[in-house]
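Retro notes (design track)

What went well: tokenization of the new backbones is finally stable.
What didn't: we kept losing track of which sequence belonged to which structure.
Fix going forward: every design gets posted as structure first, then sequence, in one message. First example under the new rule, 149 residues:
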């Protein structure tokens, strides 16, 4: 990337991290007396985003020179992944987490790197089932499983 883009991106992420951190402090703590409440995860995500954006901002000042833009922007790939993310958001409740996540990941993997279909399918299946099992069975959360017709 270029120094200018990295600098603006780091400032934007710094502001987003600050907002996430501030807003996470407004989430009420757990009523059960636990020291770990629902505000802890977003608070740490905000802190991590703040630290990483500060590092990126620092690195923009230590660049030797403006790097030449060697690659062109890939609008087609961006629009395909954006469209599949929108589809994913709408399809999650209707067809379930596992199927919609599998479709989204498969489209994203194939958009980023054509070919290698079998590894893409295996990774998408493994990730979909693995995260579903971990969240639902291990953590006791709820996700829409498979569609009920």
């Amino acid at each position: 990337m270029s120094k200018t883009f990295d600098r603006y991106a780091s400032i934007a992420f710094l502001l987003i991290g600050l907002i996430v951190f501030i807003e996470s402090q407004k989430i009420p703590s757990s009523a059960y007396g636990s020291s770990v409440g629902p505000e802890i995860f977003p608070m740490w995500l905000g802190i991590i985003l703040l630290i990483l954006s500060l590092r990126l901002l620092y690195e923009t000042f230590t660049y030797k020179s403006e790097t030449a833009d060697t690659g062109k922007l890939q609008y087609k790939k961006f629009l395909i992944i954006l469209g599949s993310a929108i589809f994913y958001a709408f399809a999650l409740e209707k067809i379930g987490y596992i199927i919609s996540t599998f479709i989204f990941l498969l489209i994203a993997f194939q958009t980023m790197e054509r070919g290698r279909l079998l590894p893409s399918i295996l990774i998408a299946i493994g990730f979909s089932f693995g995260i579903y099992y971990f969240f639902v069975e291990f953590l006791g959360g709820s996700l829409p499983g498979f569609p009920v017709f």
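Added context from the reviewer: The chain has a mean pLDDT of 83.
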